[in-house]
Specification:
alpha+beta, FAD/NAD(P)-binding domain, 2 domains, three-stranded mixed beta sheet, binds flavin-adenine dinucleotide
């Protein structure tokens, strides 16, 4: 069973993911920090202090301690490479698209790509027809853009941005308040968090994000590595 909780504070986002496995309780804990930080700068005590500070809902709220056995600093970004094919080269998963982890969509997208691609290969080798392979990129991209939008939206709502001002902060609070008070918005969020059935997803338009990018294979070939 997995339970996910988000905490939004003026300082930064927390995402907690509790995974009950056998008799042990494992938690993924995400703290927003400076992406240039080195994990060594985040000793266990600093992490616990930050979690206590940012997660407590009332004085004396107890946060149970446990062993921290893995730490990492992950730069977040949105990225889509389209089309996801070039001739007979087909891209799937993170090779073709990256989402910020706020929506927990990366692995799910990779699996969805592979499912669509596998059935296209099956058709190709069973019938000799390449129709599904030719449609692979556009079919996969429907889901990809939907997930990009969801992850971007969750991040825009829950993260603190260094270039944001007081107005931006109030906009985030207003968006969050709407979600918290609206059953319709909560249903929409839950629907997108769970994800669409395979194959084919709700068609979203191309999302233009100030933090996201869309590039072509040709662009990528002639450019510097992604930051
Ligand atoms: C901390 C963290 C938390 C995440 N949480 C979630 C989550 O909750 N839900 C979710 O859906 N997604 C999550 N993701 C994203 C998810 O892990 C990725 O989107 C997913 O693993 C992408 O799968 P992939 O197969 O495309 O790439 P990868 O899983 O990166 O697999 C690529 C493989 O190729 C290998 N490889 C690379 N180069 C070569 C080479 N030259 N030759 C041979 N092998 C090579 C690599 O070693 C690797 O094993 C998270 C990611 C991180 C970092």
């Amino acid at each position: 069973m997995t339970e996910v909780e988000f905490a939004f504070r003026r300082e930064a986002l927390r995402r907690l993911e509790f995974r009950e496995e056998v008799e042990a309780a494992l938690c993924d804990l995400y703290l927003q920090c400076d992406p240039t930080d080195h994990p060594a700068a985040w000793g266990d005590e600093r992490i616990w202090a930050e979690l206590d500070e940012r997660l407590s809902t009332h004085a004396g709220w107890p946060l149970p301690r446990g062993e921290i056995f893995q730490k990492g600093v992950i730069a977040m970004r949105s990225f889509v490479l389209e089309p996801m094919s070039y001739g007979t080269l087909y891209l799937a998963g993170d090779a073709a698209h990256i989402v910020p982890p706020t929506g927990a969509k990366g692995l799910n997208l990779a699996v969805a790509d592979v499912q669509v691609l596998a059935s296209a290969f099956a058709e190709r080798y069973a019938t000799g027809k390449s129709t599904a392979l030719e449609r692979y990129s556009s079919a996969a991209l429907e889901r990809v853009w939907a997930a990009e939008h969801f992850s971007w939206w969750m991040t825009s709502m829950l993260h603190r941005f260094p270039d944001s001002d007081a107005f931006g902060y109030r906009m985030q609070r207003a968006q969050l308040a709407k979600v918290i008070s609206s059953t319709a918005l909560q249903t929409a969020l839950a629907e997108q968090y769970v994800g669409s059935p395979l194959p084919g997803a709700a068609a979203y338009g191309k999302v233009s994000s100030p933090r996201g990018r869309s590039r072509t294979l040709a662009d990528r070939a002639g450019s510097a590595p992604d930051p």
